[in-house]
Amino acid sequence: MEPERLVFTSSALDKNGEPLFEVLNKVTFTEEGGKTKLTVHARVSKLRDEAAPHLAGMEQGWSESLDRLATEVRA
């Protein structure tokens, strides 16, 4: 059976290599009308005050990453 979901943690690091926050990412793949639908859920934890600018761009970052993935899949 093909995997239907990826679950992983990620974080952004400060200049000293320390985590600013941690994100639990769940990426689910479902079939919809003969195509694959990808759904992303991200839950932030262990948040530091300095994390705000990074979190503000998280949605855009995911969108850009998924756009690049789509380009690679089509190639």
Structural topology:
Elements: E1 5-10, E2 22-32, E3 35-45, H1 52-56, H2 58-74
Antiparallel strand pairs: 1-2, 2-3
Strand residue percentage: 35-45%
Cα distance, first to last residue?
A: 25 Å
What's the tally of helices? 2
| Mean pLDDT metric | 91
The main sheet orders its strands as: 1-2-3
What is the N-to-C succession of helices and strands? Answer: EEEHH
Main sheet specs: 3 strands, antiparallel
How many strand units? 3
Unreliable residue stretches: none
* Rg (CA only): 15 Å
Q: What percentage of residues falls in helices of 4 or more residues?
A: 25-40%
Shape: elongated
Question: What structural class do the secondary elements suggest?
Answer: alpha+beta
Note down, in words, how this protein is organized.
The chain is α+β, with helices and mostly antiparallel strands. Helix content is 29%, strand content 37%. It is built from two helices and three strands, in the order βββαα. The protein has a three-stranded antiparallel beta sheet, with no helix packed on it. The longest helix has 17 residues, at 58-74. The mean pLDDT is 91.
Which key phrases capture this entry?
75 residues; alpha+beta; 2 helices; elongated
Quick gist of this model?
With 75 residues, the protein is of the alpha+beta class. 29% of the residues lie in helices and 37% in strands. The two termini are 25 Å apart.
